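Per reviewer request, we include the raw input and output of the structure prediction for the construct analysed in the revised manuscript.
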Amino acid sequence: MKKRSEVTYSPSDRLTVERLMGLGGQSARKSHYPELLAKIEELEAEKNRYKLIFDHAQHGIFQARLNQGLITANSALARICGYTDAEQLCGRVESFAADLLFDADEYPLFLERLQLYGKLLSYETRLKRQDGSAVDVSLNVLLKQDARGDLLEVFVADITERKKAQNKLKKLNEELEVRVDDRTQELVSLNDKLVREISERSVIEQALKVARDAAEQANKSKDKYLAAASHDLLQPLNAARLLVSTLQERELEQDNNHLVERIHIALEGAEELLSDLLDISRLDQNAVQPDLISIPLNYLFRMLQVEFQPVAEQRRVKFSVSGNRLNVHSDTRLLMRVLRNFLSNAFRYTPEGRVLLGARRRGDWLEIQVWDTGPGIPEDRLDDIFREFQQIDHQYQTGRKGVGLGLAIVERIAGMLDHPVGVRSQLGQGTMFSVSVPLSGEVIEPILQPQQLPQHDLSGRAILVIDNEQDILVSMKALLEQWRCYVYVAIDSAEAIENYLSEGLIPELILADFHLNNDTTGVEAVAQVREYAGVSIPAAIITADRSPEGRKLFRAQGLPVLNKPVKAGKLRALVSHLLQPGSAVDG
C-alpha cells in the first residue's frame, strides 16, 4: 500500500473528489487541502478498524479466486487449519480446490451449487489442515464479480465439537436401537404371557362377578328381611311394652312388681338391641338420608333433659344442662341419636357424681359435650370403643349391659352428617364425649315432642286408636283405660266411622298406626275421620317407620310422631299435650 504522501490523483479523480465535497468549478481553484486531508484520514481510520475486526474475528474469513490460491485470510482461519499465521496459510494454499478442500472430488459439486445460487449458507465440509488431517467446518460462501473475474468471500466456523457430539449421539442412538430391539423382544414375550394371564383373569372376574351379584342380591334380601323383620318384631314388642306399662301402673303384690320390672328391663334391652342392629344395617347400606334443618340448641337440650332426668334421679346422679340460644344445622333425629348414646353411656358408667350436657362455640361450629365423673377410659382403648361389639367392663357399671354397638352407630352417623366426634378421658376422673355441629342462622319451629311436655289428668277423654294389629289395639286400650280414658279401637278409618262416628261418638284425639291394611296409611285414615266429623281432631302417628320420606310426610301434615316400641311416659306426655285447648293441628 502506498503512503499517503505518495498518493497522486488524475484530473478526473480530482474532479470526483471536488464533486463529493460539494465544490463548484470556481471553488476548486481555491485551497481545500485541510478538508481533503481530514476526509482521507477518516477513510484510513475506517479501513484500519475493519482490518482489526477482520484479523481478530472469532470465525475464519478468507477471499480466494475459484481456480487460484487465497487472496487474503485472517488469523482465525489459520488457527482452524493449523498454521502459525495467515501469511503462512496464504503462502501454502496455491489452489482453493486442491490445497484447502480435504476432498478434492467435492469441488465440482460445490462449484455447481455456488454458481446456481450465488451463495451457500451453512455448507458443511472438511478443510485440510497443515498436518494433512481434516477439520469439520461450516461455510457461508458469497460469489462476487470484480474486474478480475469471480471472487469468493467465505466465512468459516469450526464445528468439530458439534460433529463429535453428533457422532456420539449417533452411536448412542444405535446402542439404543439395539436395546429397544432387545426390550421389544422381552415385551413381546411378556405380552404373550400377559394375554394368557388376562384370559385367566377374565374367567376369575366372571366368577367374581357372579359371586358379587349373588352377594348384592343377598344384601338386598337381607335389607328387605330386616325391614320386614323390624316391623314384625316391633309390633309384638310394642304390644308387650304397652302391657307391661299398664301392669307397672297397677297396684300389685311386691313379688309381682319385681317380676314386672324384670320383664320391663328385658323388653327394654331387646328393643335397644333390635334398634341398634337395624340402625347399623341401614347406615352400612346408605339407606339413611339426613334431613338437615336449623334447630334451636335449647330445643334439643330440653328434650334430653326431660328424657334423662328420671334416669338421673333413679341413679342418684346430678344431671346439669347448660344450653344457649344458638341454632345448629343438622338432622334432629340423627343428632338426638348421637347425644342420647353419649348420655346413656354417661349414666351407665357413673354410679355417683355428676353428668353435664353443655356446648362450647368453636368459630362457626358448636361443640356439644357430655361430661361425666365416672371411672374413665384407658388411653389405649379410646379408639376401640367406636368399633362394633367393643365394650369396656367396669365394676361401677349400672343398669343393663349393652352389646357395644352404640358408639359404632355414633361414628357412622357422625361421618354421614360430617359432624366430627371426639373423646377425652382420664382414669379415675371421668370422660367427655363431644360432637361438633355447624351453626345456623335460620330458625324453624319443630313439632313439639312428648319428652318436653307436661302430663295432665286424662280422665274421661275420648281417644280413637286405629291399628291393623289386634294385639296393639288390646294393649293400647288397656293402657289408655288405665289412665281412665274412653277408648275406641278400629282397624281402619272405615270401621271407626261405621262403629263410632256414625253413632255420634266424636273422639277428642286420634292415635293412628302408619301402615294399615290394603296399602293405606294412618295419615289417610286421620284425614278421612276428620273429613267425616267435620272437625280438625288432634292426631298423632305411631309407627316403626323411621325413613326420611316418612318424617317429611308427617312434618308436612303437621302430625307428631311416636316411634314403636312406644314408651308409656312419652305416650302420656303427647296425649296430654294434644288434648290441651288450642293444641289441635290442622290436617
